[in-house]
Amino acid sequence: MAEVRLEGITKSFGGKTAVDDLNLTIEDQEFLTLVGPSGCGKSTTLRMICGLERATEGNIFFDGKPVSWLPANKRDVSMVFQSYALYPHKTVRQNIGFALKMMRVPKATIAEQVLQAARTLDIEDLLDRKPRELSGGQRQRVALGRAIVRDAGAYLLDEPLSNLDAQLRVLMRAEIKRLHVDVARTFIYVTHDQVEAMTMSDRIAVMRDGVIQQCATPEEIYERPANRFVASFMGSPPMNFVTGELADVNGVRTFRSSALTQQVHPDVETTDPAVVLGIRPEDITLSTTPVDGHQLGKVFVSEPLGPDVLVTVRIEGELIKARVPTPFRLGHDSTVYVGLNPNRLHLFTASDGTALHAPKREERS
Amino acid sequence: MAEVRLEGITKSFGGKTAVDDLNLTIEDQEFLTLVGPSGCGKSTTLRMICGLERATEGNIFFDGKPVSWLPANKRDVSMVFQSYALYPHKTVRQNIGFALKMMRVPKATIAEQVLQAARTLDIEDLLDRKPRELSGGQRQRVALGRAIVRDAGAYLLDEPLSNLDAQLRVLMRAEIKRLHVDVARTFIYVTHDQVEAMTMSDRIAVMRDGVIQQCATPEEIYERPANRFVASFMGSPPMNFVTGELADVNGVRTFRSSALTQQVHPDVETTDPAVVLGIRPEDITLSTTPVDGHQLGKVFVSEPLGPDVLVTVRIEGELIKARVPTPFRLGHDSTVYVGLNPNRLHLFTASDGTALHAPKREERS
Amino acid sequence: MVALNRLGFAERQPLGDNAKAWALNAPAMVVIALLVAYPIGYSFYVSLQKNNLKRPRAKRFIGFDNYKALLTDHAFLSALKVSALFVLVVLGLTVVLALILALVLNERFRGRGLLLSLALLPWAMPGVVNGLMWRTIFDAKTGALNGLLSQLGVIDDYHAWLTSGTGAFLFTALAQVWNTLPFSVIILLAGLSTIPSELYDAATVDRAGALQRFGQVTLPWLLHPLLIVLILETMNAFRAFDTIYVLTGGGPGDATTTIALLDVQTVLTFTDFGLGSAYAWVITAITLLISVGYIGLLYRKGNFEV
Amino acid sequence: MSTLVRVPLRYRIPWKKIVLYVLAILFALYLVLPFYWIVAMSFMHEVDAISVPPHWIPIHPTLENYLGFIRPNAAQELVGGRAVSETPYSLRNSLIVATSTAVLNLVLATFAAYSFSRLKFRGSQVLLVLYLLTRMVPGIAIIIPFYLLMRTFGLLDTYLALILSYTTFALPITIWILKDFFRSVPRELEEAARVDRCGWFRTMWTVFLPVAAPGLVAAAVFAFMTAWNEFMFALFLTSTKAAKTIPVVAANFATDFNTQFTVMAAAGVLAVVPPLVLALLFQRKLVQGMAAGSVKG
Amino acid sequence: ACSNDSSSGSGSGDGSVKFEGWDYEAELVQQNLDRFTTTSNIKVNYTPITSAQYVQKVVAEFTGGGGADALYVYDDSLAAWVDGEYLQPLDGLPGVDEVYAAIYPGNAEAMTYQGKRYGLPYYTDANCLTYNTGILTKAGITKPPASLEELEAQALKIKNAGLLEYPIGLPAQLSDTWWSWVWALVFGSGGNLFDDQQNPIMNTSDTVTKDVFAWLQQAANKSKVIDPASLQLLPVPIDNAMKANRYAYTIGARYASRDYNDPAKSKAAGKIRMALVPSLDGKEHATVSNTRMYGLAKDTDVKDDAFKLLTYLGGYDEKKQPYTAKFWFLQRGLGFAYKAMGSDPEITASLKKFADPVVYQHLAEIAKPRNVLGVPWYTEFETEMHKVVQGVLSNQTQPSAAVDSLAQTVETLKKKYS
Ligand SMILES: Nc1ncnc2c1ncn2[C@@H]1O[C@H](COP(=O)(O)OP(=O)(O)OP(=O)(O)O)[C@@H](O)[C@H]1O
Ligand SMILES: Nc1ncnc2c1ncn2[C@@H]1O[C@H](COP(=O)(O)OP(=O)(O)OP(=O)(O)O)[C@@H](O)[C@H]1O
Ligand SMILES: [Mg+2]
Ligand SMILES: [Mg+2]
């Protein structure tokens, strides 16, 4: 369809603000992913776009036209509800085909499209069951099927894959992506799965407490988080943070804390020297032998993650997590030397966490 | 409590078998994770253990005593329902405290424990709301709180973290693990998150179509999958499979297919030479220069996954996925040389997918 | 979004909840207003009159004199007492029995459909047949109850069950309960069927026994159906007329003369429309008061959304 | 786990089933016994019906009481000869009136009840009580003005008069019943339907009402029964077999002089058959359960 | 005359006569009316109304302005309906004087209000003592009692013989029909409750009421010959009990004997006889009668035709015969107001099947109507009286207190209606 524009959208539930002065434009045919902690207002935002909830303040525009007063059934959007909202009295077939039926699509076409969708979702043999006879994941797939089977101006998907196994999720992800390409419509997607967010989106909007913290491409979000919250939110295991101060040591701009001393990019400017250093676990290298510029630490615990190992290292009382390739064989209290990739450091003000310097995207050696 | 033993448990829903002749013993204080594709019978199994569903056949024993006829409220198990099943007429506080109230715990203790649980779950300020006024993730946390606040002989958790963001999920995982250690009871856990399954469990049971495929420690499952299904199911992105045959080439046991020729472990024995070779993406290395034993391929597509890149390589018509560290800069159709880690190859019969040789757990070089 | 554009939608504010609500209520309100507003107003007006059809020419407006007279009207006060007791007994029995029966019917067992239909039976029977039935059952000379009990050896002789005040009262109440049971059962049963079964699952896992499940899950969900049952059954018990009239005619003496009986007698037998309407309005006021009480007690508690 | 498993429970006595069946049987007896007496009487000759001790099973069973309804001339000798001939018509009338009342009621009440269950508006509680109020004024007080009203509309002795009056009686309670059941339909369902491009009416018709079926059936049964056995208004508003309902006709079997017990009993038995058949047809809906499996959370 | 448009006025609009009655034998009524229509060419639109609600519905119709042209009238309702201006007097219309001259004075009195005549007789009945000769014979009793004392003694004899626990049954459940047997007992002993100015005399000049009450109390509580179950018995159950040989005596309408003696309906068929109502002294005898009549609506548009119908039903036909009255007696044994009919052989032949024509005739002659039917408070009084009598029967009220309370009630009611 359509560009979806939210202007100063605020939604309060009896005094509690769920979404706060949200401004966001989702381009035509864009795939935007909304992420954020539980309860930050993602579903509420979708519901407002959809027309199920009326914004307390602000306006919503589709293609520049205000739709605030347009009821959901006239908005031409399709939605997967976080809670599925399947029609309990209808079979899976009828559930999926319902919207098509409402759009007066010929019966034969409906049957075909429903079958097609069901095949995609691998629920072909469940078509004649009622929702209560399905497993959780099967229900979720029906909900997804209901949304994707039809043609709509915008597709709003609220955690549509959360109850599926990894395999299926990968497949479904691909299907959704394919649909996005095929129909060339606007997609707004909510997920808690970072891989999903990173791989599928044109842009990611990170929300917190009803406020958008950053809205940018996946790379940008990952590489240049706008603030400490975004930095900590994206990436799993999350970024390490060390509080310290910025100083010039021997003419070299240096970050100093009780645990770490680390050269930083000379361009970083700040009035307040109190800063926080951020470094992602995968940007840390561990070696058993001393390396120049590496800090001495002790292994605290290591957790295998399949292909990698997550090693928590204690450096002077600070705990730092590093993600290193399997195998990693050092036990508790073994000595390691910790190196931070200087090109991938992040600095934030200690006061409000704003990024001081979003380092250019540089290659790890 | 208690060792939970399932003996020949079968559950049919009007002709359709959801769980098929399941035999499983969960040791006292064990943390067992059930995984499997959507609809494979995980929830049904939990519900039977819990006493909400009566097995069509077979018996369930707690500590060696049959409980098939014991109603759920006498079984002393606690459960997180996949669908939450919150009491809509009760506040969050009452929801969480309900089981305690039923157990006649003094009011003050209840209040305290509920508060404690709510703090753990970060839903302290929602205690006086009704479920209706919560976001999806908040509801899920209430459901979790309801289960963990009480003391029970066994804890059954059905995808308790599926709707939480990554951060919170990590925290909650830790809390659940801590609870497991603290109360020293049996935990049966269902999840679709492999990290969860791998990191939390003492053992993992992989189900498919109501049948347990393998029940073993996470390492074993990952390293020595009992069959092709388990191998493909665990690990994301999944293992690559190449169909071919086993032959002795120059006295060396070799796997051969149109695309690949690969030396394998000499001990592998099979009557039928038709086999499938499995290799995990992270066990593949790519290089731009020819290496001995590596096969020539072309980059098909590469997807960034944050710290890694998933590269799909085409070798003679076969598509193979490799997971390599960021950065990976080759574009479509670039030539690469693909190397498989010979110690981490998996072989399965082509006929029924049984593992031919579960290679010893060996280190990657 | 083609369709959307074609609509050329302007910013048009749809109806607010208030307007929508009134619009939705309009049909019902119109029908009710059209049909009962006049009769109700008229009857209130009549209640302010001296208006006995036997003396049409003596008709005049007397304000609240009819009501004032009630305060000292011995028949009225005694009827009020009888009615209150009757309501209490009938309501109590009906609610308890209906609840149990509804709970039974909410389970799966062989013959449930049959029992459900049977539960509707008393409702389907025309009043006169019903009256005849009770009369022939309680009859002192040829009654079925006497027959049954004496054949069972419980009694030696045929009893006249309705000749003592208490007997008459209790047996009438029993017959009334039989008659009003179906309504309550249906409402409560339908109420029960709205309770998601997973809540019972959750409660069972939370170690709630059957009784606690009832108290903690069933009851809160049933509060509103129960409210309806309470209101309607109170109303019915206050207006109970047919059964009492047929069985005892209000006797012996005044033992079963309820206010409704008195009202019907006043209007239809004595043709005193003025006084009769006043009685009716007193009944209305009392039931309204009680209903508002119930509402105050239960409405909010049961008012949750799923 | 201390409370767990004290006895081997392999062959537990199914107490729940036992209690259930005992209760079911007791209730069935309580409900049926009085009625059984009517049924028995309807197959007896007048003399046997009043014999002492009573014959629980008709000793000289006869169909005469019923046959009269089919061949009215045979009923000449009876007290309610005309009533006998009117009985089949009155059954038809009752069925039409009761069904129409139920339908009309459902339609009107659905709108109103929806507003109470879904919309927040000023004065909703007052309006609810007001509805009740209209129902609280005893019929005896309004029957005469009601009669006059119907006369003015020229509706005496028509179905419409009865349908309208019963609708007004049943409507307030129907609204109360429905509002309650509507509340238990998850809002999300309605929302899903809206997203699936249904307008309000469509949503109601295709999603909302089917899910609320138990409530609708309960309300319909209520309205139907209200109309089915109402006597007083039917008596006043009708006078011929064109609109007389079964309660009015059944009353004709009793006069000051005599009561034709057995024929009245037969009429009574006939009168309960249609509602019971309907009940049997709809009972599944009534107990179907509402929204199982539809929403998570 | 389609009833659907009955709203258009009091008449049916098409010239037919709208005729209403309670639903006694509606089919027979219709037959009889059909005969009238064939002979007179006047169409009659007949609507039977459930007897229990007859009065109410007629009231509603007249209040609403849609009453019938001709209709049945209870003697109890006459005054109210005249005052309500539903009915018009028949004085001066052809044949009315003739009819009034031919009927028993009691019936004529009952149809007259404030000096005007309002009805032609439909039927009438008088109360009698009904007894079961079968039981009496078994107890060795050959003659029915003449006095109340005798009645009690005979009953006691039956009781002592173990034939019946309670030989006397009376319909004493509250209802809104009148208790004829109380009036019959009072009138039977020559008493009355009221004087001609409708002043209560039961507690002053006339002691009969009190004595009758005393007898009732004694028979119910001392000798226990009156069935205590009477308090829950309406006339119909009493009839059933009589038919089932469960009572030896009752006091009620003569009419009932026909049913009692019908072998198709009664096990006591052939054994039931009627006698004069026993009195205190056993010598003086009288009884109470009721009269049901055909009335003419005040606002009728078809007065002539309606009156022709009235005449057909309640008056003489061309052959100077009360055709319909005779029809009713022969068909159903309804009592007649015409003195002459008592000697009609056809009638006596039919009568013999269930009663002694002499006694039957005698009762009609000595019967008088209640003299308070014209007061507006009569119904209230009657209702109150039932409760008082229940009190007497159940030994909760003493006879003197009972009569005092009755008088008191009258005063209160009079005040209320003043
Ligand atoms: N009431 C029922 N009637 C019929 N089939 C049912 C019923 N409940 C479950 N099933 C079927 O049984 C199988 C197992 O269901 P179950 O809920 O145990 O799956 P699951 O492993 O928990 O899946 P998921 O991960 O999707 O929750 C599914 O195929 C489901 O369709
Ligand atoms: N009806 C309501 N009444 C009050 N508060 C509400 C209501 N609905 C949502 N909220 C609150 O608004 C906030 C945003 O809710 P929303 O459902 O949009 O969260 P979300 O971002 O979708 O979270 P999740 O990932 O857990 O689904 C939450 O804090 C929630 O508690
Ligand atoms: Mg959400
Ligand atoms: Mg599941």
Structure description:
The complex is a heteropentamer, with two copies of chain A (365 residues), one copy of chain C (306 residues), one copy of chain D (297 residues) and one copy of chain E (418 residues). Chain A has two domains: 4-232, 3-Layer(aba) Sandwich (Rossmann fold), CATH 3.40.50.300; 237-357, Nucleic acid-binding proteins (OB fold (Dihydrolipoamide Acetyltransferase, E2P)), CATH 2.40.50. Chain A is built from eight helices and 21 strands. Chain A has helices at residues 42-50, 92-102, 107-121, 136-148, 166-183, 194-200, 218-223, 228-233; strands at residues 4-13, 16-26, 31-35, 57-62, 65-66, 77-80, 154-158, 186-190, 203-208, 211-216, 240-249, 252-256, 261-263, 274-279, 284-287, 295-304, 308-315, 318-325, 335-340, 346-349, 355-357. In chain A, helix 2 packs across helix 3, helix 2 runs parallel beside helix 4 and helix 3 packs across helix 4. Chain C has one domain: Orthogonal Bundle (MetI-like fold). Chain C is built from 13 helices and two strands. In chain C, helix 2 (17-47) packs antiparallel against helix 13 and helix 5 packs across helix 8 (165-193). Chain C is flat. Chain D is mainly alpha-helical. Chain D is built from 13 helices and no strands. Chain D has helices at 15-42, 46-49, 64-70, 81-118, 124-136, 139-152, 159-183, 187-195, 200-211, 213-229, 232-237, 246-251, 261-286. The radius of gyration of chain D is 24 Å and the shape is globular. The two termini of chain D are 29 Å apart. With 418 residues, chain E is of the alpha/beta class. Chain E contains 17 helices and eleven strands. In chain E, helix 9 crosses helix 17 and helix 16 packs antiparallel against helix 17. Chains in contact: A-B, A-C, A-D, B-C, B-D, C-D, C-E, D-E. The site of one magnesium ion has 4 residues of chain B, from helix 1.
